[in-house]
Design a protein that fits this description.
Layout (H helix, E strand, L loop, with lengths): L9 E2 L7 E5 L11 E8 L4 H10 L5 E7 L15 H10 L2 E5 L5 E5 L10 H13 L8 H5 L10 H19 L16 H7 L5 E5 L2 E4 L1 H9 L4
Parallel strand pairs: 3-4, 4-5
Antiparallel strand pairs: 1-2, 2-3, 5-6, 7-8
Helix pairs in contact: 5-7
Length: 228
C-alpha cells in the first residue's frame, strides 16, 4: 500500500512512523518551518491503529490513519472506517482518515484538524432532567448489570414514578379507604395523570372515569422492584 501526496516527498517506516512526509523548506534551513505529516497504515481500523497515531502526535504536525477498504481478493466490504463514531473519534483527535482500495484509489474520509462536537441541547436537557427527577442512584451498573435479565429493564425516573403510583394504588386497595384519583396522586408522583393515561408498562387498569386499579403485571412489578 503506497501513498504519494502531490509535491510532498514520502519516506517509508523508520521505527518512528509508518509513513512520513515533510514539505515547506524541509531540510534546507530556508523558508517556512517544515510541516511534518505522519501516516499509519493498517488493513483494518483498530484501537492499535489509533494508539499508534496518538504516539505520533508528539512528532508530527498532521497525523493520517489509512485503512484498506477492500476485503480478500479485492472484494468490497464495509469496514469500521465507515462507522460515524469512528469518524467522530478521528475528528476529536485531529486525525485524518483515508480509505485505500485494492487498486490504490485513495478516499479522504476525514480531514485532519481541530474539531469540537456540536452540543445537542435537547439531548443534554433530557439527560439533566432525568438526573434531577431520579431518586437516589437505583440503576445497577458494571458486572451486576449483566446479571439482570434484559426484559427486566433499568430503573429510570419515569419507572420510579410509575412504581410510586402503583404502590399508592396498592395501599389504597389494602386499606379500603377508596382509590385516589390521578390529580390526588400527584403528591407521590408529579406525572401521575400522564402515567395512568399512557400506561406504558401495562400496570394499571381503568375501573371507571378517574379511577384506576392495578393489573397482575402491576402487582408483580411492586414485588420485582421492591426497595427501589
Amino acid at each position: 500500500m503506497r501513498l504519494r501526496p502531490g509535491g510532498v516527498p514520502v519516506a517509508a517506516a523508520n521505527g518512528a512512523a509508518g509513513r512520513r512526509a515533510a514539505r515547506n523548506g524541509a531540510g534546507d534551513g530556508a523558508g517556512e518551518p517544515p510541516l511534518v505529516v505522519i501516516g499509519e497504515l493498517k488493513q483494518r481500523f483498530s484501537l492499535e491503529l489509533v494508539l499508534q497515531g496518538v504516539d505520533r502526535m508528539a512528532a508530527g504536525d498532521e497525523i493520517w490513519l489509512a485503512v484498506s477498504t477492500s476485503g480478500a481478493g479485492g472484494r468490497k466490504r464495509r469496514g469500521r472506517e465507515r462507522d460515524p463514531r469512528v469518524r467522530k473519534l478521528c475528528r476529536l483527535l485531529g486525525f485524518g482518515l483515508l480509505g485505500v482500495s485494492a487498486r490504490g484509489a485513495v478516499e479522504v474520509l476525514v480531514e485532519p484538524g481541530p474539531w469540537r462536537p456540536r452540543k445537542v441541547k435537547r439531548r443534554r436537557a433530557r439527560l439533566v432532567d432525568e438526573h434531577r427527577r431520579r431518586r437516589g442512584d437505583p440503576a445497577v451498573g458494571g458486572t451486576a448489570m449483566r446479571l439482570v435479565p434484559a426484559k427486566a429493564g433499568i430503573m429510570t425516573a419515569y419507572r420510579q414514578q410509575a412504581l410510586a403510583v402503583a404502590a399508592a394504588l396498592a395501599a389504597d386497595a389494602a386499606t379500603g379507604l377508596g382509590t385516589r384519583r390521578p390529580r390526588d396522586l400527584k403528591a407521590v408522583a408529579p406525572d401521575a395523570p400522564k402515567i395512568l393515561l399512557h400506561n406504558v408498562y401495562g400496570w394499571f387498569v381503568r375501573v371507571e372515569r378517574g379511577v384506576y386499579g392495578l393489573t397482575e403485571a402491576g402487582r408483580a412489578a411492586l414485588v420485582r422492584w421492591e426497595g427501589h
